[in-house]
Amino acid sequence: MRAYSAAAEDSIDARNLLKDWLAESFITPAQYARLEPDTACDLRRTNIFLRIVLLLFTLIIVGAAAGLFFVVFLDRSSSQSTGIFLLICAAVSYAAAEFAVAQFRLYRYGIEEALVVASVAFLCGGMLSVLSSGMELLVPPACAIASLWIWHRFGLSYAFLAAMIFVVWLPDGWNVSHSAQHVVVAVLYALALIAIVAAPSRDHSIVEALLWLGIYVAINLQLSSVDLLEHWWRGPFSTADFSATFYWTTWILTWLLPPAILLRGVREKDRLVIATGTITAILTLITNKPYLGWPRHTWDPMLLGALLIATALLLRRWLASAPNGIRHGFTAQRLSAKDKHWMSIGSTAIGLVAPQAITPTPQPASPNPHFGGGDSGGAGASSDF
Is there a contact between 167 and 189 (Cβ–Cβ < 8 Å)? Predict the structure, then answer.
């Protein structure tokens, strides 16, 4: 049921590998020239920068078109009419995305992505306008299902992340305690994780990493509660919304979950899952003091940074000390050019977002100084100087 054939996506993956191998000199340009025709496919792609630009421009065009139609024809319409109009826009946007993929073979091109994103946004707005009071609780599950379908159909990982975010809003309409809301979200993520592990999909690695991270955030009350986050730098905080048993159980789980994630990633040699385990371990160290109600100090980040540097150096030295620098299939050497590529993209993005932080603001030229009105003493002479 995917919009793209498995053979076409395999060809794209193979071409990306060839580019990485060529960048790292694992193959010669002549070998690349011989192998590259075997990875040809009919899908049309573009670079990451143009992809983002096309996505933003398409979103602006779709939003402007819908807004213009609404102002011209439905300016004084009822809420029901507005909702129906938004639902029609959702259907039209999704149909346009399917047409763009089927007719023009767009793949991660930005245009079709903007159309499916707009369809979900229109769906949310339309349902909120159409549904009567008290029925808004149907919006999160409907939007979560729509996001899951888009992830399954187009393979967009951020659509799965959107579905996870909609799941967070599911218990809001239920008459349950705050503790039960955390448990419900964590259980739903855990069930999805079991399903992904049992039947891995094409992009199961990033999906599994997102689910592990979602489970951890749902369990860690310091991260999933905005009210508690506000008290991080204010010393002890109130835990009246949670029972003592539930609170300290979540604290124990925040220490048990990162090693479990790391073990899973190491066993499967899954880089994204290992990275998620590392991130959750760091978050556990960061949130430990707020959990225990201990005061935070200005030198805490310095100590954490020193610990991370020491851990990284020891791990790198341990891996490098093995024969050929490889221990149990792991090495500290860089084997792919992807890291360099993404670091370049990140540096460029930072430069675009905050150019003033990189390029100093030119200072205005100061006017020529003019001194005047001074009197020089001696012999009664006076002069401007």
Answer: yes
Q: How many domains does the chain have?
A: 4
Q: Which two tokens stand for residue 339?
A: 């890291």
Burial of 89 (0-12, 13-18, 19+ CB in 10 A): buried
132-147 burial: b if 16+ Cβ within 10 Å, else e: eeeeeeebbebbbebb
| pLDDT one-digit tens code per residue, 151-201 | 999 999 999 999 999 999 988 878 888 899 999 999 999 999 999 999 877
What's the rounded Cα separation, in Å, for the pair 279 and 257? 11
Show the domain range for 102.
44-175
Q: How far is Cα 215 from Cα 183, in angstroms, rounded to an integer?
A: 10
How far apart are the two ends of the chain, measured CA to CA in Å? 86
Contacts of 254 (CB under 8 A, 6+ apart): 216, 219, 220, 280, 283, 284, 287, 288, 291
Select from 119, 147, 175 the last residue of a domain.
Answer: 175
Q: Sorting pLDDT into bands at 50, 70 and 90, what band is 133?
A: confident
